[in-house]
């Protein structure tokens, strides 16, 4: 892949901690986090100039921002701020907003988000269990909760898609959700969180991913696959990346940095060069789709 190959980073964050409310990055005590100690993220802004300083030789032609756990008491604040940032800097090209679909104000928030030009979809992390054997179908706040599902059903009328971050053992609930709402595309974040890399853990993850991939409305972001306490390496990540591509097909995979969060695991250069190394043996058309064209389609971009 040539160095001028166009790339759209399909998942990262911007925040201005001096002015904007992100409780997990400002308040104490710190929350439990899947990468462990995240103190390196606290107290530091991450804005377009900071992002652009990291990308090295990669030709990042556009980016998509993901909601960053803005204070839920202000459900529209982050999207309005991101719209203003995009108008001032040309980054990002699209935004995935925070919305709490099971809140009383869920419908009015979705209607307001529909009117913000930058917003393409929403993310609401559903309640999840700590391990597969602890899953309780229909638990309050989960994807099986009737109130949660009723809120999700409103997305199609507002032209918004859904971004799902949940451990792989909840993907059967996502399959049911898609079947009940076939007009709403779903993008699985962070490859379904395959944190357990034991043979049994990977077998369970693969089986769940295959069931989700049967739904043509589902796509997967290859991002956020770092391991706590380990540097990001191609050796660790190649099996997960290759399995995602084999299971979903190159037409439904997107590469993304998850920066600055994944800076806890590796540099931007390490991660994107790793993605490019793993994908290098595929036809150029397939590489371009996963690094660029699929994001154009899913996020309705113009480039």
Automatic annotation (TrEMBL):
Domain Amidohydrolase-related: 8-301
Protein's name according to its UniProt entry: Putative TIM-barrel fold metal-dependent hydrolase
Organism: Humitalea rosea
Domain of life per record: Bacteria
Keywords from the named record: Hydrolase
Highest classification ranks of the organism: Bacteria, Pseudomonadati, Pseudomonadota, Alphaproteobacteria, Acetobacterales
Pfam families: Amidohydro_2
Assigned protein family: Belongs to the metallo-dependent hydrolases superfamily.
Record keyword Phosphoprotein present: no
Record-level Gene Ontology MF annotations: hydrolase activity
Record's keyword annotation contains Iron-sulfur: no
């Amino acid at each position: 892949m040539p160095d001028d190959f166009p790339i759209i980073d399909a998942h990262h964050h911007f925040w201005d901690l001096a002015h904007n409310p992100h409780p997990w990055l400002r308040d104490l005590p710190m929350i439990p986090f899947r990468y462990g100690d995240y103190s390196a993220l606290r107290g530091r802004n991450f804005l377009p100039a900071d992002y652009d300083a990291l990308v090295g030789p990669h030709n990042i032609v556009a980016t998509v921002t993901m909601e960053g756990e803005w204070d839920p008491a202000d459900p529209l604040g982050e999207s309005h701020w991101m719209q203003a940032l995009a108008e001032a800097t040309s980054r990002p090209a699209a935004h995935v907003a925070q919305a709490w679909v099971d809140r009383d104000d869920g419908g009015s928030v979705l209607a307001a988000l529909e009117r913000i030009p930058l917003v393409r979809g929403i993310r609401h992390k559903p309640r999840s269990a700590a391990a597969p054997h602890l899953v309780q179908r229909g638990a309050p706040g989960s994807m099986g909760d009737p109130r949660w599902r009723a809120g999700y059903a409103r997305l199609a009328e507002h032209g918004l898609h859904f971004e799902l971050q949940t451990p792989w053992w909840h993907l059967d609930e996502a399959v049911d959700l898609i079947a009940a709402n076939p007009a709403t595309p779903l993008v699985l974040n962070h490859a379904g969180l395959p944190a357990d890399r034991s043979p049994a853990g990977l077998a369970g993850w693969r089986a769940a991913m295959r069931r989700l991939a049967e739904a043509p409305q589902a796509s997967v972001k290859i991002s956020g696959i770092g391991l706590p306490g380990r540097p990001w390496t191609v050796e660790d990540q190649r099996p997960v990346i290759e399995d995602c591509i084999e299971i979903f097909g190159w037409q439904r995979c997107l590469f993304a940095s998850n920066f600055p969060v994944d800076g806890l695991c590796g540099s931007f250069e390490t991660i994107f060069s790793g993605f490019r190394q793993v994908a290098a043996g595929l036809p150029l058309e397939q590489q371009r789709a996963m690094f660029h064209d699929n994001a154009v389609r899913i996020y309705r971009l113009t480039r």
